[in-house]
Amino acid sequence: MSVVVPTRNEARNLEVVLPAIAAVRPAVHEVVVVDGNSVDGSVETAQRVLPWARIVQQTRKGKGNAMATGFAAATGDIVVMFDADGSADPAEIPAFVSALVRGADFAKGTRFARGGGSDDITALRRLGNSGLNGVANALFGTRHSDLCYGYNAFWADLLPLLELPAVDAQAPEDGSMLWGDGFEIETVLACRVAAAGLRVAEVPSYERERMFGATNLRTFVDGTRVLRTLAAERRRAMRRTAPAAGRPEVPAVPVAVRRPLVQFEGPSAPAHPDGQAAAIRRPRVPETVSTATPAAGLRAFDQSSDRNDEPRSDSRSGAA
C-alpha cells in the first residue's frame, strides 16, 4: 500500500502528519511525498521526520499533477490519497483498505455518512457540496454523499482507466494547466470512476481543521470549477459512448484486472520493525471487468476517443 501525500509549503504540518501515517498498523508499505516547489523546507522536513519516505517533485503545477506524479511513482497495489494539511486522520486508512479488500475498486471518503463529520466545513460549503452531489448523481447515475472530499483509495492497476494527464507531458505555453492538473482532480476521478462502471464504496471519515497555514479553497471559484468539471466530464463520457456516424455502436471494452498481493509491510520494514506484516489478496472477480456503466445512461467506455476538446484548468488554481 502506497500513501501519496501532495505538499507545497507544508513543513510544519508534515512534522505531525508523516509520523502519524508511519504509526498506522498494519504498517503502510510506502509513503510518497510529492513536492510542488516548496520554499519552506518541506522536503527537508519530510526527510528528517520520515527518512524512508520517497520524495518526488511534481512535473508541472497543480494538485492534480501532484497526485498523478505520486500515482506514477507509487509501487504499492493500493494507492491512498492523503492531504498534507493535517485535516485527514491516518487511523482511518485501514477502513479504506478494508473497503477495497471487500470488493470495491474505489473507496471514497465521506464526511456525511454515520461516523463521518467535519470541524472545517462551513454551512455555505456544506450547502454547495450538497448541490454539487445532486448534479453529479444526476449526470452519472451515482449516489455520492460527498463529491468534493479528497480522502480516497483505489487499486493501482485501475490507473490506466482513469486516463490522467501523462506526468511527462509539456505544460501549455500560455501558462494554463492541462485538464486534470488542478484542484478539479477529485471531481475528475469521481466522474471517470463512474463512467468506467467501477465499484465504489463510501467510507465514513472525519475531517479536522487544517493544523498550520491557510487553506487554498475558494468557495465560489472552486464550486464553479467543480460544475465546469462535471459538465466537461459528462461530455467526455458521452463522446466515448456515442457511435460514429454510419457505424455501429462500439461494444464494451473488457479491462484485464490483475490479482495483486497487497503487502502492508514491504521494503521499508526496517524503519518500523514493530509493524505487523499482513498480506491481503484482492477479492476474486471475473477475469474481465466491463467498463459499461450501470444506471448512468452512459454506454460502453470507448477508449479510442481523443481529448482535444477537453477544457484546460484555470491557471489560478495553483500548485499542490
According to DSSP, the number of beta strands is 13
Q: How much beta, percentage-wise?
A: 15-25%
Question: Regions with pLDDT < 50 over 5+ consecutive residues?
Answer: 244-278, 284-309, 315-320
For the biggest β-sheet, the strand order reads 3-2-1-4-7-5-8
| Largest sheet properties | 7 strands, mixed
H/E element order: EHEHEHEHEEHEHHEEHEEEE
Rounded mean pLDDT is 78
Q: How many helices in DSSP terms?
A: 8
How would you classify the helix and strand content by structural class?
Answer: alpha/beta
Q: Helix share of residues? A: 25-40%
Spatial separation of the terminal alpha carbons: 22 Å
What would you call the shape? globular
From the alpha carbons, calculate the radius of gyration and give it in angstroms: 19 Å
Provide an overview of this structure:
The protein has 320 residues and is α/β, with parallel strands linked by helices. It is built from eight helices and 13 strands. The strands form four sheets. A seven-stranded mixed beta sheet has the order 3-2-1-4-7-5-8, sandwiched between helices. Strand 2, helix 2 and strand 3 form a beta-alpha-beta unit. Helix 1 (11-22) runs parallel beside helix 2 and helix 5 (123-140) runs parallel beside helix 8 (219-239).
What's this entry about, in short?
The chain is an alpha/beta fold. It has helices spanning 11-22, 42-49, 63-73, 93-101, 123-140, 159-162, 185-195, 219-239, and strands at 2-7, 30-35, 54-57, 78-81, 106-110, 117-118, 152-155, 200-204, 206-207, 254-256, 261-263, 279-281, 288-290. The protein is globular and about 50 Å long.
